[in-house]
Write a structure and sequence with these properties.
44% of the residues lie in helices and 14% in strands. Helix 7 packs antiparallel against helix 18. Keywords: Oxidoreductase.
Amino acid sequence: MATPQSDTPLSPLRTVAVVGLGTMGTGIAEVLAAAGRDVIGIDVSEAQAAKCVAALEASTARAVGRGRLTEQQRAELLARVTTGTDLSAAAGADLVIEVAPESYEIKQQIFRELDGIVRPETVLATGTNALSVTRLAADSAHPERVLGMHFFNPAPAMKLVEVVSSVLTAPAAVSAVTGLALDLGKEPVAVGDRPGFVADGLLFGYLNQAAAMYEARYASREDIDAAMRLGCGLPMGPLALLDLIGIDTARTVLDAMYAASRDRLHAPAPILKQLSEAGLTGRKAGRGFYTYETPGSGTVVEDALTPRADGASVAGRPVRSVGVAGSGTMASGIAEVFAKAGFEVVLAARSEEKAQAAKARIGKSLSRSVDRGRMTAEAAAGTLDLIRPTGTYDDFADVDLAVEAVAEDLEVKRQLFATLDKVCKPGAVLATTTSSLPVVACARATSRPQDVIGMHFFNPAPAMKLVEVVRTVLTADDVHATVREVCAKIRKHAVDCGDRAGFIVNALLFPYLNNAVKMVQEHYATLDDIDAAMKLGGGYPMGPFELLDVVGLDVSLAIEKVLHREFRDPGLAPAPLLEHLVAAGCLGRKTGRGFREYAKR
C-alpha cells in the first residue's frame, strides 16, 4: 500500500470534475464556476446532466435579476461548465469531487475507475457525510490523494466545508483543498475521519433524539419544533429539518454513526425506519413528519395530526394577580413579563431588601426599553407601579397564580411549595419554573397536587418567547387551561410536554452539548472548528462551547447529570472533561474561564 507523500507537488486546482449532478453536485458546480474554475460535470444519467444545466441557467438568471451578476458574468460562468455522462471526461481535472449516492459499492467503483483515468497527482475528494473516507481511500491506487470535502446544502449559500483527512491522506492534498475552499469563499474546518464528521455527527444525534421524543408521544411535532426554534434560536425545528434533509438520508447517516460508535443515541429511532420504508421520506415525497402541498414543496398543509384551533374544551381559572417568588434574574424577568401584560404582581423574596433590589433591576430593564423606543416612559412607570416587592410569602394570600423562581434545588423548592400551600387561597394555581427537576415532587409537597404545574421560562424572560408548560399526572385540566390562557396574555408561545427530565429543550440541547465536549476530549477537532461548524453548517446562533460558557459549565453539568440519572443511558453520561473543568472552578464567563478565557469585567 502506498504511503502519504507530503512533498509531492500538486498542480493548482483550476479544473475540477464533479461526479454526481444531483442537488448537491449541481450546487458545488455552481460555486466552483462562480469562483472562476473550469467545471466538468459528470452523471450516469443524461437527464440528470441536462437537469443540472437547466438548474444552473435558472439560478444564474435569478442572480442577474437580483443584481448579483451581470449578463456577461452569467454567460462566462455558464461557459465554464460542461456536462456529460462519461467518467473519462475527468482525465484533465486537477481535482475530482465525487457526490454520488451514499453507497460504498458505488463510490468505490467510481474511485477505481478514476484511478485509471486521472493523473497520479490529481486529488480525489468524496463528498460523503456518512461513509468512511479511510475505507474509500484504502481501495484506491493512490490513497494519499484521497480525502473528504463535505459541502452543506444548499452549497452556494452554506459557508462550511469540512475537509476530512484519513490516516493515509497527504498533507499537500489537504492544503490544496483547504486553499480551494477559501478561494470559494467558504470556511474550511479540518476534521478526522469518522461518520458524520463534526456538524452532522452532532446534528444527527440531536435529530434522532427529537424523532424518538415524538415517537414516544411526549410532545407534538409542532411543539417539539417550536420549542427548539424559540428556545434555542434555531432556524428550523428538528422534525421539519429531518423532512428537509430526507428521512431516508438521515437514517443512512445514523446507521453509519451507530455502526462506528455503538452509542444508543445514534441508533436510528424506529419511526425513521417506518417512514423510510413507507416512502414517506419528507419534503421530496410530499410527506414525512409533516404533509406538504406537493412533492418537493416546502409548504406544510393540514393533516390528521394538525392541532385544531377550536378553542380549549376546558375553561381556565380567572387570573388577575400573580405572585413571583425569588429575587434573581429569572424571577425579576418573569415579574416584568407579567406586569407588562397588566397583571398585578407581588414580588416576594427572602427579605424586603432583596425584593426591592429585584424591583430596581426591573426598573433598569424598563428604562432600557424606553431608551430603545420599545415603550413610552409613561408605560414603563405604569408597569413598575404594578409590582409590589415584599419580604414575606404571606402577601401571596390573594394571588390567583403563584410562580416559583428560586434556586434549582429540589429540597428548597419542596419547602417553598409547602409554604405556598399554606399561604395561597384555595383555587390558586401554583407553578414552578424548574428546568430540570421533577414537577411532581413539588406537587407532592402540597395538599393540592392537582393545582401544581410547570411553567419553564427561558432566560432572559422578557425577550424569550417560549414557555414549556409541564403537566404532571396529577395536574387538573383547568389548571393546564389556565396556564395556556395566561401564556397567551403575556405573549409567550406555550408548548405542552410531560414531566420528565429536561422537558423538550434541555432534553435535546444538553446531550448535543455533551457530545461536542466529547469531541474535544477525544482530540477529534478544536473548539473553534466545532463552534464554526455548528454555526455555519447547523444554523446554530452560537457554537456549543460559546453556549456552554454562557450557560455556565456547572449549570450544564447539573442538567446532564439529571438527564443521565433519569434515562440511564450511558451515552448521556457527562463528559469527564466537563466534570474536570467544573471541579477546577472553570465555570464559564461568570468566572472568567471555561472552555475559553475571558477578559475580567
